[in-house]
């Protein structure tokens, strides 16, 4: 078998597995939603850690430079470090800020914001909820819609927390260079 045929996905002597369509039950759907919700939490933990680390770096730069005359190169490094710390903090904040102001029509029966906006009285929601939990196919649809929506949220949050971490490490680099110049 040639490298080119392998890159194309061709396999010699191996049959493709038969894909069997399986009905997804509510238990599996809830597990998937829980996995995706875990990704959201993980991105928020990373953003929180970046935000805390930004505070530490900001304090370190302040203590490293207070009351000291800096040359031009050191001033540039301090400004770049502060800019990186601020940008990192903004990215972390963008990850952590909840986005409840989106005003689409509240359709999902398990997403708290849709439920709260659509049903002002518990009695109204109770009957809809009771009908939902006995209709497994409809419940799986609602859970899968929420899983998809949470996946989009997790992706956006990971992008923001990733940038926060990158900018934090850039600030660390600036501090390291500043410390080398100050020694």
Q: Approximately how much beta-strand content do the residues carry?
A: under 5%
Question: How many extended strands?
Answer: 0
Radius of gyration: 25 Å
- The end-to-end distance, rounded to whole angstroms, is 59 Å
Helix run count: 6
Summarize the amount of helix as a percent range: over 70%
SSE ordering: HHHHHH
Largest sheet: none
Q: What are the low-pLDDT stretches, counting only 5+ consecutive residues below 50?
A: none
| Average pLDDT rating | 88
Instruction: Give the CA-based shape.
Output: elongated
Structural class: mainly alpha
In short:
The chain has 183 residues and is an all-alpha fold. The protein has helices spanning 3-7, 26-65, 72-96, 112-118, 122-134, 136-182. Helix 2 (26-65) packs antiparallel against helix 3, helix 2 (26-65) packs parallel to helix 6 (136-182) and helix 3 runs antiparallel to helix 6.
Describe this structure in words.
One of its GO terms (biological process) is defense response to virus. Keywords: Antiviral defense, Cell membrane, Membrane, Nucleotide-binding, Transmembrane, Transmembrane helix. GO terms for molecular function: nucleotide binding. It is a single chain. This protein is mostly helical and 183 residues long. It has a domain of 120 residues. It is 75% helix and 0% strand. The protein has six helices and no strands. Helix 2 packs antiparallel against helix 3 and helix 3 runs antiparallel to helix 6. The chain is elongated and about 70 Å long.
């Amino acid at each position: 078998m040639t490298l080119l045929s392998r890159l194309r996905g061709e396999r010699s002597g191996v049959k493709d597995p038969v894909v069997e369509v399986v009905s997804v039950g509510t238990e599996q759907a809830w597990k998937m939603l829980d996995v995706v919700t875990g990704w959201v939490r993980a991105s928020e933990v990373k953003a929180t850690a970046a935000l805390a680390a930004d505070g530490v770096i900001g304090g370190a730069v302040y203590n490293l430079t207070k009351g000291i005359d800096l040359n031009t190169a050191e001033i540039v490094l301090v400004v770049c470090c502060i800019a990186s710390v601020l940008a990192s903090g903004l990215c972390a904040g963008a990850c952590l800020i909840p986005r409840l102001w989106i005003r689409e029509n509240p359709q999902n029966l398990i997403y708290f914001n849709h439920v709260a906006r659509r049903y002002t009285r518990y009695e109204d929601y109770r009957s809809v909820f009771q009908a939902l939990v006995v209709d497994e196919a409809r419940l799986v649809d609602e859970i899968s819609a929420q899983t998809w929506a949470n996946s989009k949220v997790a992706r956006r949050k990971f992008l923001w927390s990733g940038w926060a971490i990158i900018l934090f490490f850039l600030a660390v680099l600036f501090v390291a260079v500043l410390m080398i110049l100050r020694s």
